[in-house]
Each structure stands twice: as structure tokens, then as C-alpha cells.
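Batch job 17 of 40 flagged for manual review because the log was empty.
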Amino acid sequence: MVFLVVTAVGIASHPLITKVLADRAPVTELKVDETVSWLEQHSGFGNRLAAAALLRTHEDITYDDAYYNISFPMGDIPSDKGVCTDLVIRSYRALDTDLQKLVHEDMQLNFRIYPQLWSLSQPDANIDHRRVPNLQRFFSRHGKEIPIESEDAIAENTSYGDVIVWRLPHGDTHVGIVVPGPGNRKHEKWVVHNIGSGPQWENKLTEYQIIGQYRYYGMQAVVQYTQR
């Protein structure tokens, strides 16, 4: 009887085990480069942003959320350090889109409509663009905010290059970029994000609560800043 129970459990759980192992399979540099090449065969800002995010996974980044005094525009913290927002910022910069400059200029004109969470009386070009709520407000103002629907519909309504914002279990916000899955899973929606171990390519689109989805195609989407 014990043998039969164990066998039955093994058969029933096999698809789940297979999926778990597949999602944890090593994502090699070769798979990254293959997927980047595949994306580059398809035109569009979103595909190019997804490719830029995937290339970030080649970088060895130590998680560091410290405040830094940086130059402006195109200022950056040390290249071997960063958090989730730095991955997004650097991916956009690969496409000549400087979120530091864009967020700062918008906040100079519209400071009070940005989240007032840090006891500041004016914009700070050193840090504003590195805060997830500020990126959310900027993307919602100058890009397209995608309605959050059921979990089953999320992948269907998501495009490569979309920016996803999550609420983590402990309450913090987190951000990443939607990319294809590896190998024969290219048509799945995975993400590149940095949640503490540097840029990672993972099947975690719906791992956490999604609280924002944005499609922002850089300067071509911003004609000029106006008071709103």
C-alpha cells in the first residue's frame, strides 16, 4: 500500500516538479545573447528595451540603496552597485533616454503632484529617479499606464519592454522590465529585475502583487512638459 501511494503521488506531482525545475534552470550568457539577437530581429522600442535589460544580466552588481551625490545629467552611482530602479535607469540609457534628467525636469515643474514621502521641499536630482513611486508617477504621466486585470490576463496584456511595479510581501515597492523567456520559452513573459542579487532573468512576472504596468518609449513619447 505504501508503495502504491508513493507512486501515485510521484505521478501526480511530476508536471509541477518539471515546471519548478524549468523555472530554476540556469540562465546562461549564451541564452541571454540568443534572446537578445532574437529581439533585435523585431523592431520597436519595447523589444530594444527588453534586449537592453537582458544585457544587464551580464553585469555583476552589488545591491546598494545608499544615497550618492552624482553628476547631472546622465549621472550614475558606481557602475558595480545598484538597486531595482538602477537597472531600469541603465536599460533606458542604453536607448539614449535619461530618466534622471526627464524625472528631474518634470518634478521641477510639477513637484507637488509627485509622491510626498521623503520630507523634501524641492526635487533632488541625485535620488528622485531612483525611487519607484517617482518612476510610477513619471511613467503614468508621460507613457501609457496599462490597466491591471486578472492574473490570467496579465501576460496576455503585457509587451516586452513594459515596466512592472510590484508590492512585495513586506510592503516595499519593486520594479523590473518584461522580457521573453529563454530558449523555446521565448513567447513567455519573464522579467529582468534586481531584488538583491544583481540583475536576474526570472519567470516571476506574477510572483508578487502587481500595482503598476507602464509602457514608456522614451523621448519620442514626450513632446514637451506642461503644468498638469
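Reviewer: the log was empty due to a logging misconfiguration, but the result itself is present. Strands lie at 62-63, 81-82, 144-145, 163-167, 173-180, 189-193, 200-202, 209-215. Unflagging and moving on to job 18.
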